[in-house]
Specification:
heterodimer, A: alpha+beta, Uridine Diphospho-n-acetylenolpyruvylglucosamine Reductase, domain 3, five-stranded antiparallel β-sheet, 13 strands, B: Aldehyde Oxidoreductase, domain 3, 3 domains, eight-stranded mixed β-sheet, five-stranded mixed β-sheet
Amino acid sequence: MRNAHPGLPELDYVKPGSLEEASKFLAAHAGESRPFLGGTDCIVRIRDGAWKPKYLVDVKGLEGTTGISFDPAKGLTIGAAVPMNKVAAHPDVQKHYPLLVEACNWVASYQLRSRATIVGNVCNASPAGDTIGAAICLDGVLNVFGPDGYRKEPLTTFFFGPGKTALKPGDIATSIFFPLPPKESAGKYLKLGRNRLGDLAIVGVTAFAYKDASVASGYRFRIALASVGPTPIRPTAAEEILAKSIDESAVEAAAQAAMDSCTPIDDTRGTARYRKLMIRNLTRQAVSAVLAQLKK
Amino acid sequence: MVVARKEKTAGPVGQSVLRNDVLEKATGAAVYTDDIQFGPGLLFARVKRSPVPHGILKKVDVSKALALPGVKCVVTGKDYPDLMGLYLKDRATFAVDRVRFIGEPVAAVAAVTEEIAEAALDLIELEIEELPAVFDPELGAQKGAPLLHPDLENYVHPNFIFPEPGTNISNHFKIRRGDVEAAWPKCAAIVETKVRVPHIQHVPIETHVAVALADDKGKVTLWSSTQSPFAQRAMLAKTFHVPESDMRVIATYVGGGFGCKAGVTMEAIPIALALKVKGHPVKFRLTREEEFYTNFVRQGLILNLKVGCDKDGNLLAMENTMYWDGGAYTEYGVNVTRAGGYSSTGPFDIPNVKTDSICVYTNHPSGGPYRGFGMSELHTGLLQVMDMLAEKIGMDKVEFLKKNVIQGGDTVATGMTMHETGIKECVDKVAAAIDWGKKEAPTAPNKLRGKGIAVMWKAPAMPPNAGSSAIVKMNSDGTLDVSIGGQEIGQGTFTAMAQIAAQTLGMPYDAVRVSGPIDTKYSPYEWQTVASRLTWSMGNAVRLAAQDARQKILNLVAEAWKEDPKDLDIQDGVVISYKSEESIPVKDFVVYGLPKENDQGWIGGPIVGTGSFMPTYVTGLDPETGQGPRAVVHYTTGAQAVDIEIDKETGRLEVLRAAAAFDVGKAINPDLVAGQIEGGFVQGMSSAMFEGAMLENGVWRNPSFVDYRIATTMDVPPKIDAMFVETAQDDGPYGARGVGEHPMVPTIAALANAIKDATGVRITNPPFSAEKIYLALVDAGIVK
């Protein structure tokens, strides 16, 4: 048996005074330091021995990490340190980004969401991350401060594998930006866990769509699949089918295409066989739910 | 003038009074073992564990660990080779020359911090020669399987445990009743099936924790989170060669037990260390992972069942061969398999029975007591077979159950005559509660709806002479202290005991203080808080102690008033005479006595009542036939029914309505009974839908709450009808029997039967995960 540590192993907690200081420290201690936000993944993985950092670098409270700001002309910026419960309770988020609220509310439990952050969820890059699908579908872009100053990291090119992202030592994601969603849009996140509360996703399907007269069906879809590959998956074949038609057989074909696009594994949560079938069924349900909202 | 004797006021028994531990638990004031402060001398223990499932332990080198600054001592199996066990002495504190499961303690370190103790473990060097292992009980029971305990013939055990030395069988319980072979040809329908029930864990919120302190004379005090302070005292005193009176166990509140804190699990380890560092308390607490690996598990079970009935549905014969995955040590588990054996027919009247209940050593975690003590596992198979039989002969399942359930006067399979029981009434109640027989429409087009029912029975499983005792002390402020040795583990026993004491004495419920924590030095003896036996057994002791105090009070007042005690009564804390209409509050004299007339001295003195109870009538059973006059003290029976839906898109099972009824004899506190019935259903449902050890070659793949899922409040059905019937127990306090374990016993079978009703597919083996149900529907062509 893995002799799990009874508590946390000894490590240094570093609280830098500025982004520059934090970035320098993280770059100088690459491989032995980690930026620290809500800690809901960090603490568990360190206690399990999966991560063995010498330094936890607390980046909460640094410039740009703390607030939520909504600009009706541009979009929404959520600071890296803002806990999910605050995001989900924010009136502008509820009004303009209901998909994000829905995704947040599927993460773990209320207690955990008082600490957990969307940026942390994204940067941990677990294929099961509940808010990642919404963040991808809403065209999220991370604001990153690194050794060379600020840059933007669109989520479309951000994920390389489980825990592997475009971030490099010394990088600190300070916030995530979401442009204004298209006017007539709707989204749905469906998560399948073993029980109803607090589980990791066996599979998760996020579907988002908006009206677009330039495509044959009149609807443009974005779909993201969780827990069925090393990274979140965008089943573009399914999205293309729905751009052509949204009748019942097209939805069924899109669901099948989503199923065919994923590459799940067998693990303690479920088998690859079940996961593929569930991607098909939940994609069908999520797409139908989105269409029902848009046709209202 | 003689006043008419008025009807006794209702009194607290039968009332849903407020729990007497609720305030301190709700506010966080209640003290648990890890809350106690021990000062700067406290040391922390960590344990070096076997990394392999089976092997010869050739060398344990602790020299480097001992040299680590902060380490105060290291102990190994060589220091404490004595074997211990509740029913079969087969387990040492640490592995001595052989390891038998992954996680088995090999050595322990005490250090000034938990971190240093943990770091020292890496410095302990083990040399183990790995041996072939046993992971399947049915294979392990065969001759030629790798032998785990070559010394089995030398292990000490009571005369009702039957090991088979030279094999891995540590207990083999048999029933041979009637003639099974002759009965099969008379059957109109026979169902034969194999059911597997996985290991599950108790997962109490509070993991095991114990603190041991040895003084310079070698007297030991143990603070522990335990259901069994007196059993721990007895077992640990023997193991460490300390007189029982010098082994003191202080048992604080318990943050969840469910059986796993009965007997001894890890408590010997801090004592082993404390004896080497006298004067230093040593604390040991299990991590959640250690809790999964090294705590008792509910043992896995393979049931091979064959049951037959005639064309009218009368059960004629049963053959039941059970292979219990007892794990590496079966010191406690052997009695689970015995209980599974003598109750192997379930609550049914079957004339021809052949049972083999076989406990098999495997290189898995050790099996032990878990709420239900073998009954959930047994009923999971048996009540599905009854469902299949009813289907096979085309009979309504409720009618089939009612036709065959055991009734007062029937002879049970062990030869004992069954007492009166209200199981038929329980079946009627649960069937009515879910509108049995009415086909309900699904709540949505993509759902399949169905209903299921199962019955159960369970007897307290214990040695024949498990005893209880109680002391009632009257106080001069109108209160009384009730001292008991049974533990409050959330079930509400302190409240029920206060109700019984108050009712018996004629005192108000609020006047009763139950003395805690349980302390073997000051509390009266109680065997263990297990087997759903406290309300009945300890309740009898409390009732007798209260009666003793009551009689002393009445005798004293009668002497003072020159009246006959028979004309006196105690009502609401006041002694009254029905003859003279005199009255006097109890508090005025129960400590200081009463003055004689004209200052001529005093009579009386502090009033203390004592009571003891022990069943004296349980007999042995014949080792070859399992026959004897009285196998058990009594059976609590009951029934459960569920109305469920299956989502055709995901396979997810949802319980829409659940109903349960048990014959509790007398509900001392109806709300607490309902709490047990609801909680038991949820625990049973959790074990049916989510829980199961994923063991691969002795390795847990899911030893944490990330992957060992249990039901949350979100998974609980919106409606659980908790009901009871009251057929009085002849030797129970106010007629009461236990109901702590019973509510989870029939749940897996009831849900399995409902899944079959909803989908047409029979899935026999829990857990009934969404995946398992969905893929079964795919394989059956119901969905694609």
